[in-house]
């Protein structure tokens, strides 16, 4: 069974949580212990990526340490072809649909596709859009940010991702966003699509996670919490529990 099919099967029954680890934010050793805490808290997968990564080695060493410390699937969340790693189990083969820069829409994919073929990392197709405030990802990705209240545009992107055959759609407010994507936008997007909906950016506690899941998110991603929360085990366990709705 593929990781994609495993995820789709799990979310047909319940909402799940993914932990995002940015290799640029801590040593591989610390990344390994964050992954272990994620696994112990009931998270379903580890995403690895970030906008400010500087070398493939950084990604390789981080994934090696994650895999040494936990058994969750590792899914790359790459900002470019240079940061793919054959140590990962899968890669979100993601197009940043609202970028003005074609590199993030398709050109980096062209550069990385043969590496994925050769290494047998499982590609999982995903349409990715960034909503205000967008944060670093919005800036580096040269994104035409979707306005927080522009539901129609968000639905247009979500349906486009589905019609283009993408397996997942990701509504991103940007890592560290003060406000996550609104419940209303999540609800309206979810109503209109049949593919699973991932939501991330600015989710730091169980109450917010629950609201986003109730609005229609199938998968909640948290990143900053892993780096900053001193009670990480409790916070993640509470978030995972809050998704039991
Ligand atoms: C970023 O949505 C993720 O891609 C995670 O955001 O760091 O705010 O949890 P946070």
CATH topology: TIM Barrel
Give the amount of beta strand, in percent: 15-25%
The ligands bound in this entry are: SN-glycerol-1-phosphate
The CATH superfamily is known as FMN-linked oxidoreductases
Treating each run of at least 4 consecutive H or I residues as one helix, how many helices? 10
Rg over CA atoms: 16 Å
Compute the separation of the termini in Å.
27 Å
CATH architecture: Alpha-Beta Barrel
Number of strands: 8
The domain count comes to 1
Low-confidence stretches: none
Taking the sheet with the most strands, its summary is:
8 strands, parallel, barrel
What sort of overall outline do the alpha carbons produce when their principal axes are compared?
A: globular
The largest beta-sheet arranges its strands as 1-2-3-4-5-6-7-8
On the 0 to 100 scale, the average pLDDT is 97
What does this structure look like?
- It is a single chain.
- The chain is an alpha/beta fold.
- It has a single domain (3-242), classed as Alpha-Beta Barrel (TIM Barrel), CATH 3.20.20.
- It is 45% helix and 17% strand.
- It contains ten helices and eight strands.
- The protein has an eight-stranded parallel beta barrel, surrounded by seven helices.
- Helix 4 links the parallel strand 4 and strand 5 (122-130).
- Helix 6 (151-163) runs parallel beside helix 7 (183-192) and helix 7 (183-192) packs parallel to helix 8 (206-215).
- It is globular, with a radius of gyration of 16 Å.
- SN-glycerol-1-phosphate binds at residues 20, 172, 175-177, 200-203, 221-225.
């Amino acid at each position: 069974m593929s990781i994609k099919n495993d995820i789709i099967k799990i979310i047909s029954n319940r909402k799940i949580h993914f932990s995002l680890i940015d290799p640029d934010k801590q040593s591989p050793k610390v990344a390994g212990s964050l992954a272990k805490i994620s696994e112990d808290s009931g998270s379903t997968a580890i995403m690895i990526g970030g906008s400010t990564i500087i070398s493939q080695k950084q990604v390789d060493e981080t994934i090696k340490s994650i895999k040494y410390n936990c058994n969750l699937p590792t899914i790359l969340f790459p900002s470019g072809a240079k940061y793919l790693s054959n140590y990962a189990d899968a890669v979100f083969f993601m197009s940043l649909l609202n970028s003005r820069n074609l590199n993030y829409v398709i050109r980096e994919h062209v550069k990385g596709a043969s590496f994925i073929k050769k290494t047998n990392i499982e590609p999982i197709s995903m349409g990715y859009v960034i909503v205000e405030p967008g944060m670093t990802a919005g800036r580096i990705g040269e994104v035409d940010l979707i306005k927080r209240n522009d539901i129609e545009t968000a639905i247009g992107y979500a349906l486009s991702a589905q019609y283009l055959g993408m397996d997942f759609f990701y509504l991103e407010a940007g890592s560290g966003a003060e406000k996550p994507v609104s419940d209303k936008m999540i609800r309206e997007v979810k109503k209109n699509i049949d593919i699973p909906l991932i939501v991330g950016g600015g989710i730091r506690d169980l109450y917010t996670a629950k609201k986003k899941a109730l609005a229609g998110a199938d998968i909640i991603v948290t990143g900053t919490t892993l780096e900053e929360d001193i009670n990480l085990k409790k916070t993640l366990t509470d978030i995972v529990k809050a998704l039991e709705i």
